Amino acid sequence: MHPASLARLIALAALWGGSFLFMRIAAPALDAVPTAFGRVLLGALGLLGLAAIMRIPLRFQGKFPAALALGVINSGIPFLMYAFAAKVLPAGYSAILNATTPLMGILIGVTAFGERLTAGKGGGVLVGLAGVAILTRTGPFEATNALISGVLACLVATACYGLAGFLTKRWISQRGGLDSRMVALGSQIGATLLLLPFAGWQMVAHPPEPGHIGGDVWIAMLALGLACTSFAYMLYFRLIADEGPMKALTVTFLIPPFGVLWGWRVLGEAVTAAHAAGGGLIALSLWLVLRPETARPAGKATTGETS
Known about the structure:
The protein has helices at residues 3-30, 32-53, 64-86, 91-98, 101-112, 119-137, 145-171, 180-205, 215-243, 245-248, 251-267, 273-290. By secondary structure, it is an all-alpha fold.
């Protein structure tokens, strides 16, 4: 990976690891839908501001509908699921579960996009599922229905991310490509349009009480929308454009350590053996899934080893 791409990868991991911290602060106070809607709205406004400052022409080259639809899958639904999970799960847990994104990509690729399932990838999926089970069953929290629902919400989010990687290639890359900044902007607009009616209904049915919401919540929302969404998505789509979707997905290796670190440092969340055991198995599964395979020479026996 090019050094500039590596720097973007680390910065993106730190930002997205921090997003779980900010959601953990905001979602219990605002609820899931307003948190997710505020994030994508601020993300879209931030990207528009960046485009104006950098004098980027708002040209979608006929791919604006595709970018909107991509935003529903890559931002709207996942952000809502993670905001829901943030009400019941520690930030570090959600960050570790986020690392199942490549596993979901493998399953979706095999079932819907004709991808080949190798022994290494199949083993990686099984090891990853074992890691999720350990994280859920042996953590510092009782495995209640609420906790299980939070874990399932995270897995729905990662399934959306896995699907979005293939759709980005099909809808954007294979149709001539598009400036990564426009993909990011269009996706946030699409996610905003998806969540707008639900956020509007909740505002009417359950009006917020501003006096009961602390300044830390508003700061968390600004950081979540502007830093962890608008700026981070520009980094992410640039990585996809420069390095391809699979290499861009390696950011999931780095998000869990940052998520656990921010949760521990800021919120005092416990770091337990479940983090090490479950997170370690998920990391091993990622290595199995993402490692490149050595091409087999024609006419020669192979040892079965891959690099």
